[in-house]
Amino acid sequence: MMPLLLLIISIVLLVITVAKVRSLPGEQKKRLFIQMGLGVLGISLLFILMTGRIHWLGIILGALLPILKTFLVKPSLDGKSADPESPGAAAGAGPADKHQSSTDMDLKEALSILGLEGDIEKGEITAELVGETHRKLIQKLHPDRGGSDYLATKINQAKDVLLKALQR
């Protein structure tokens, strides 16, 4: 009776997980698979330990694998791990090379990126308008929602350039 119950619970959890995974963007799917893999590994190691099929040192070694990964993957300055498959990393570009500073963008380009029209000197563009437009765009194009880091960076730079111009 108990194995049948465990089988039914496992199937239900699998169906729920597959449905959730299908609705996620690519980067979140990758993170979820890594988390699920580590969870399954941990539960398996714990089960093997509890049944007496492995020594407790084996559990410690298994638990150290994810910790070792954090030491082997070099974090970048923006808090994300450096991915060797990213376009900037392949060329040896660091975080400073991947993202331009906000001084490299002019007002015309910043207005174009945010989709705003008007003149800053005449007061047609306000800080509230810039903030609201930025918020709407970043919600659609944020990397956590399937957008790209490049677009999010450009949108943030455009907002910074326009807000600096409005403060003058």
Helix and strand arrangement:
Elements: H1 2-22, H2 26-50, H3 56-72, H4 87-90, H5 95-98, H6 107-114, H7 127-141, H8 149-167
Helix pairs in contact: 2-3, 6-8, 7-8
Keywords for this structure?
168 residues, 67% helix, mainly alpha, single chain
Word description of this protein:
- The chain is mostly helical and 168 residues long.
- It is built from 8 helices and no strands.
- It has helices spanning 2-22, 26-50, 56-72, 87-90, 95-98, 107-114, 127-141, 149-167.
- It is elongated, with a radius of gyration of 24 Å.
- The protein starts with a helix and ends with a helix.
Helix/strand structural class: mainly alpha
Distance between the termini: 75 Å
Order of helices and strands: HHHHHHHH
Poorly predicted parts: 76-103
Instruction: Return the average pLDDT rounded to an integer.
Output: 75
Say how many strands there are. 0
Q: What gyration radius follows from the Cα positions, in whole Å?
A: 24 Å
**General shape:** elongated
The helix content is 55-70%
Summarize the main sheet. Answer: none
